[in-house]
Amino acid sequence: MQPTSNGRPNPRTQGYQTFENEGTSIQFCPEEIENLRNNSRQDIDKEPSESNTSPNRNQQTAVGSPEPSSFNNRYEELMKGEQCPTCRGLGRIPRHDAEQLVALIPVGDKRLKPRRTAQWVMLSVLVCSVIASLILFFLFPRNVRAISNQPYLEPLELNINVTSQYVFVSFVNRYNFSNENYVPVTVTGVTMAVQYDMRVLNKVVNTTNLIIPHLSLKEYYVAMNLTLSGDEGYLAKFCNDPRRWVHDMFMQFDLTANYSYLGHTEQTTLTTYQHVSCGNDTKSHSWG
C-alpha cells in the first residue's frame, strides 16, 4: 500500500472502490466489500429457516413493517373474523369484509368529526315543523255557514177559499252555503220548519246533495207548501184582500243543514224571519 501525501494509503493503488450515493462518496477496501457480500448471503440463507420456525411472526408482521410493540393503539379481535389484509397483522375484521380494503384512520382525523350536525338537525326540524304547520293549516276544520238575505217570498201557487177558510200557498226559500275550508264540502240534507204565531205550520226535508268547492259559496233552494186551515183559517180573509200590507205575513224559518268533509259529518243551523205573501196580487186563483 502506497502512502499518500498525508500519510494515508492511496485508495486507487490499493484496490479501494468508491461508491457515490446522493452526492456522498463512500470508499470501501476489498476486504470490507467481501464481508458485506458474505453477510448478505447469510441473511438470504436464514430467511427460509426463519419462515419455517416462526410462522406466527410472518402472520403478524409484514416485511419492512414496524413491530406491533411500536404501535400504541389497541385492537380488539372479532369473533369469527378474518385477518385484516391491510392492517399489517395487527387486527381482525368481520369475515364478510375480508375482500374489502380496510383503512386505518387516526383518531384526530377531521373526517371522523361530525360536520355541521347541529345545523342539519335544526334544518330538518325546521322543515318538518313547516310541513306539519302547512298540513294543519290546510286541513284544520273550519266553519260551513248557512247564509240568507231574507228575501221576500212570493207564492208560486196559491189557492184561497174564504168560505171554507182554507188557504194553500207554495213558495221556494233560497239559502247560501259558505265553505271556508280548503277542502270540498258536501251538503247532504236540509230540514226547514216554518212557524207563525208561535205555531209550527209545516216542516220539510230536502235530501239533495250539494258539493261546495273550497273557499266558495253556493246557493241551495228549499220548497215549501203551506196549508192554512182550522185555527189558521181566519187568515183566508186577509190573504184574499188585494192590499199587500194586509196579505203579508211575517214568519219564522228554522233551517238545519247536514254537511260532510274529511270523513265526518257536522251540522249548521240558521233562523230567519221573512215576509211571505199569501195574496192574489201574484199568480193565484181564488173562489168563494
What are the SSEs and their pairings?
Elements: E1 17-21, E2 24-28, H1 30-53, H2 55-60, E3 81-83, E4 92-94, H3 117-139, E5 144-147, E6 157-161, E7 166-179, E8 185-196, E9 199-206, E10 210-212, E11 216-228, H4 235-239, E12 248-261, E13 264-277, E14 285-287
Parallel strand pairs: 6-14
Antiparallel strand pairs: 1-2, 3-4, 5-7, 6-7, 7-11, 8-9, 8-10, 8-12, 12-13
What does this structure look like?
The protein has 288 residues and is an alpha+beta fold. The chain folds into 2 domains: 17-97, no CATH class; 144-287, Sandwich (Immunoglobulin-like), CATH 2.60.40.10. The protein has helices at residues 30-53, 55-60, 117-139, 235-239, and strands spanning 17-21, 24-28, 81-83, 92-94, 144-147, 157-161, 166-179, 185-196, 199-206, 210-212, 216-228, 248-261, 264-277, 285-287. The strands form 4 sheets. Strands 5, 6, 7, 11 and 14 form a 5-stranded mixed β-sheet that branches. Strands 8, 9, 10, 12 and 13 form a 5-stranded antiparallel β-sheet that branches. A two-stranded antiparallel ribbon has the order 1-2. The longest helix is centred in the first third of the chain and has 24 residues, at 30-53. It is rod-shaped and about 160 Å long. Mean pLDDT is 77; it is low at 1-7, 54-66, 68-72 and 282-288.
